[in-house]
Structure formats: structure tokens, C-alpha cells
Amino acid sequence: MSSHGVPRASGPKPTAQGREKELQRIQEYRSLVATVNREIHQRYYTKELLGMTTRLLELNPEYYTIWNYRRLLLRSFFEGAIPSTSNNKNDSTEHGTVQQYITDDLAFLLPLLRKFPKCYWIWNYRLWLLAEAARLLPSPVVYQLWQKELGLVGKMLTLDSRNFHGWGYRRQVVSALEELSVAMGSASASMTEHEFVYTTKMIESNLSNFSAWHRRSKLIPRLLSERNASHAERREFLEKELELVQRALWADPDSKDQSLWFYHQYLISNFKPSCSPQADAIIPDLPDADKLAYLQAQIEDLLEMLDGAETCKWIYQRLLELSLMSKSLNDQWPVASSDLEIWINKLLELDPLRKGRWEDLRKQIFPW
Amino acid sequence: MSLVSGPGRAQVAGGNLPNELQLAVEKHVKYIQSLDTRKDELEYWLTEHLRLNGVYWGLTALHLLGHPDALPRHETVEFVLSCQHDNGGFGPAPGHDPHMLYTVSAVQILVTVDALDELEKRGKTGREGVGRYIAQLQDRDDGSFAGDEWGETDTRFLFGALNALSLMRLLSYIDVTKAVAYVQACANFDGGYGVSPGAESHAGQIFVCVGALAIADRLDLVDKDRLGSWLSERQLNNGGLNGRPEKLEDVCYSWWVMSSLAMIGKLGWIDKDKLSKFILQCQDPELGGMADRPGDAVDVFHTVFGIAGLSLIGYPGLKPVDPIYCMPLEVVNRAVGR
Fold it and tell me: Is there a contact between B153 and B144 (Cβ–Cβ < 8 Å)?
């Protein structure tokens, strides 16, 4: 598709021989496409045709219609292995055949995913294969397949820790494993704790991994509700998270890294008059007086951090944000208005790209 | 319309840049016109699955450049109609399966060249058939949309459905309230939206979610200050925009970030002059076309989003673009009856 990051092929113009070769490759490709199309339309659902779709998809995994053809082929093979009269999910010979088809195809996709980790169609097709497994095979077998996927997606995210296909796939794997555990009668089906530990691990290896911080923000409310956390435990939890991110910010307050600042924004959302989205709240019923106290503590901490990091625009930005939140709770500024003005001027000086935003903020704070 | 990259290359940053960069309008027109003559390159055939999108990208760029007739209208309409299936949906080229993505492009092209009546007369189905194809892809329980019969859901498809149906004035075919609720379930603390509930905010996904809310007339649901802040932080010191924190700049995000800012009334929160310069550095001033960033090969996808970005900034000489539909503003006004 579009050529993201593709440098122009420079160099001499193609020779006559080179052009000849290109035309030959085009002819071979188009002839393979024509054969596959013809045989699909004539419903020649054979192993040979499956092999041809393999060759075509290795050449061009974006050709989604061919992935659809492959689904039709496999469906027909499954029907051949499990006669429609059989309703027995426990017949091992029938399963053996279907399971073999599915595991072979999952293996075929691995090198393609490594080569094209951002191709939507490959990820979709893989999910379809696993959904077919769930439809046709006994739960313990399906569970094992999904468990292997958890290992796979872990490896993929080690190679590219920001691939959002990878993170999305991980969420699907986890929810499939949880559903299967429930179906198989397990008492502790939830993987929230496991996933929370995973985000900690990913963050420890790279503080700038916003994908991991984001995932953490979505896991926390679930984690606390599954732990049946009391109000006091929730407060303790939030304070620990604030400490974690503040420690990282203190280590390099002048850092240009946005990830930590955005995660900090998530945590302080709890001190807004109402946290949005509401589902993300860590302490859903925090009294206003406590919110004000937390905000004050945050402001003091940032003022201290400012000493020696006077060129970090994020500190001024956050100080103004915290002040506005505090004002919206009790209609009073937590700091002198001269401070607010100094901070806005600092932002205009340090961050001229977003001048319009800082001017709007000035109008919001000083409407007269 | 070929999706082959090159032959041109965007100017290399730090090279000999003229002080006043100009948009090479005539070169871009020629570049787009020449795309379908490149059948002797394997890449032309390997990108056939994007052909109809390519026509939409090229055609929209030409309209914004003020050359709406640079592609032959009759052949354009014929090609679009040749991609339709009996169920009303469109594939990217004859012989490819129908899918939401190409059905939306087909509708956008037909509306742009004012040819919905030809669909009515000569299509496999008329516009109502196209509307029904789109409507049956909605999950009536959670409001989401699948891309095709195999069921993958993504907020891109939800936006596509609202986009195409509103252009054909058939929004009543779907449950808009549930679609809006689904978009809301994709909202994150940073004001942004992801591909599905729980997914990280991403500028492309924000464009589709905010666009869907704009079409549904529910922009009141957006946390505009928070989202505007996040979007404005996408601008980097070189003037370009990225799609997520700690990622590289890319011309296509000029569109996704900027159109979202425009929809929530915060376009003034980034530096338009610096962005305009960055986009102009991404063009090949001799062979035409734009790339993702200076130094890379051009393609029609980055060309349209670069030009649409410049139009939204108000670059002189360009036709105004609609921030929701990425189509000429006057075309959208006519279609939806604004």
C-alpha cells in the first residue's frame, strides 16, 4: 500500500533485461491469480488450490480476497473431516484432522506475521482460525491453542513494543482464555493480575512505552474491583502509582518523554469533579476535600521539581491543569494569580508551536 | 489508478530548499494522471486490492487542486460500477470481494462526480441496495460495524458506514444511537479513541470516531479540551505531526490530526505555518506527488492527505476541503443538503 518510510529506489534506469524480467514476474503473478480465481469459482476445493493460495499470500498478504478463499477451502475440508451428521465434539479422529489443519495454518502464518507485523488481514485470519477451533474442537484443545498465542504475542511485543495490532491481539487472547476458563468450570478465570504484572514488566524495560501505560490504565479499575478493594486500599493503590510515575519523572524531569506525563494525567483525573470516562476511575467516591488535598500535594511536588528543570514545559502545563481542577472544585485558585501568569508566559516562551492553545488558556484563566 | 510508489522522491530536508516553497500544482496533476499507465511494474498488480481507494484519493486531490476534470468522468464511473457485487457492496477492483472500505470509496467517488443517478440506472443495485449492504454489517447489539461477512470490527468501519449512508441520505437504515454508544465505549482518559473498547488512542482512529460523532451530531460527547491538548502534542519541532506519543512524523497525520482539531474547533492549537512548510517539503517538485516525510518515495495516498491538509490550513489557490468527509466542501454541502 502506501509507501511508509520507503526511500526512493535510485540508481540507473532498468536495463532491457531488467524490464524483461519484471514483465515475466508480472505474467507469472497474474496467471497464478487467474488460476486461483477460476478454480474457486468452479469450487475445485483441493489441497493443490490451498497450496496456490499459500504461494499467492506469501507474495501478497494484503490481497484479502485470497484470505477469504482460504477460509472457504478450510471450511470445506473441515466439513469433509466432520460429517454434518456428526454432532460429537469428542470424536478424536475427526478432531485430529481438523486440529491438524488449524495448527498447520497457524504455523504458515508465523513467518508472514514476522515479515508483515502491521498487516490487518493476517491478524484477522489468525483470529478466524482460532474461532473455527472454538467452534469445532473440545475446550481443552482450544485452551492450549490460545495459550500458545499468549506466548506468541509476548514475543511479538518484545520485538515491537508499540505495535497496536500486537496489543489488540493480546487483549483478544486474554479475553478468549478467560472465557474458556469459565466454560471449563475454573474458579479463578480472570487474568487481570497476570496482565497487570505484564504491564509493569514492559514499563520497567522501557518507561517510554505509552502502549503499556495505556493498558495499565484500563486494567486498574478491573483489578481493584476484582480485589474487592476498600476505599482505603484504593487510596493506597493510587498513591503508589503516583509515586511510581513521580519517581520516574524526578529521575529526568527535563525529559521530552510524553508517556509519563500522560500517565500522570490519567492518575490525576481522579481529582476532577467527575472522572471521565467514569469507568476509568480508581477511587469513584473520593470526597471533594480529599481531592483538593491531593491536588495541593501534587502542585507542591511539581514546584519542587521545577527547581533545576525550568525549561520543562510539561511542569508548567501540569501546574496550570492542577490549578484549574482545584478551582473547579471550590472556586478558589490554589496559588497566586501572578504565578498562573508566569506559568502561561513560560509556556508561550518554551512552546511556541502551541501558542494558540496557551493564548486560549490565558483567556480561560483571566477572562477579563 | 495505480498505487505504485514513486517515481518521485520528496525533497531531502537540509538540502537546497528555496526560501519560499510553493505547491507544485501542475506537477501533482500530471503525476495523478499518469498513475494508471504503469502496468509494466509488478507493484501495480500487487496493489490491485486498493484500486478503488486509489481512485478516491487521486480524484479528491485533483478536485482540491482545482482540476476536477483531469480524470475522464465516464471511465471513472464505469470503473466504479464494475467493482459492484449483486449484494450491493463494492470490492476494490473487479473480482475482489465486497468490503465496507471499498463501498465507502465507491460512494464518495460517485458523489464527487455527481453520478449517484448512474448507479441507480446501471448499478447491480441502486443506492438503497448499497445502503442495505452497509446496514447489515451493523451489530444490532453493541452498535459496532464489521468490514465484511467475516466479521472483523473496527471503528474505521463504523465511520465508513455513517459517512457513506449520510452522503446517500440513508442514515435511517442503521441504529445511530447504538453506533454513538459504541464510539463512546472506545473513549480513553486522554480524550482520544481507539480501534475498539480498551484500545490505545491513535490519531487515525480519533479522526474516524470524532467524524462519526460529527455526522451523528453528537460532538457534545467529546472532551474537547483534553482531546485538543493530546492532538496538539502530536506536532513535532520540524512542524510535522505524528499519530501517537513517541512516534515519527508522517504527512498522512497532517490530515487525521488536523481534521480532528478542525471538527472540535481547535485548529489554532498547532503551528499551521510550520506544518505547511513540512508538507511542502514532502512533495517532489519535479515529478509530482507527496511522501510520508522528506526523502521518501511519493505515493497517491500521502499526496491526497498532504493536499487536503494544506487546504484545511487555507493554503492559497486550493478548494476548501470538508474535515469530516475528506471531500471537496461544496460537494459535501450539495450531497447532505447543508
Answer: yes
Instruction: Determine contact: A32 vs chain B, CB below 8 A.
Output: no
CA distance B136 to chain A (A): 19
Please state the domain extents for chain B.
Answer: 25-336
Q: Is B136 helix (H, G, I), strand (E, B) or coil?
A: coil
Evaluate whether ipTM surpasses 0.85.
yes
> Of 3.50.50.60, 1.50.10.20, 3.40.50.1970, 1.10.760.10, which CATH number belongs to B25-336?
1.50.10.20
Query: Can you list the alpha helix ranges (DSSP code H) found in A137-209?
Result: 139-159, 164-183, 192-205
Q: For residue A353, what is the nearest residue in chain B, using CA coordinates? A: B271
Query: How many Å lie between the alpha carbon of A349 and the closest alpha carbon of chain B?
Result: 14
Please write the tens of the pLDDT for every residue from A76-126. Answer: 999 988 876 555 666 677 788 999 999 999 999 999 999 999 999 999 999
Which residue has 505474467 as its cell numbers?
A: A27
All cell numbers assigned to A28: 507469472
Nearest alpha-carbon partner for A36 in A71, A86, A70, A74: A70
CB contact A204 to B (< 8 Å): no
Rounded CA gap, B190 and B205, in Å? 13
Nearest CA in chain A to B202: A164
Residues in B touching A313 (Cβ below 8 Å): none
Pairing between β-strand B321-322 and β-strand B327-328 as defined by DSSP bridges: antiparallel
Q: Is B250 in Cβ contact with A354 (below 8 Å)?
A: no
Distance of CA B140 to the CA centre of its chain: 26
Interface test with B, best of A1, A2, A178 (most B CBs within 10 A): A2
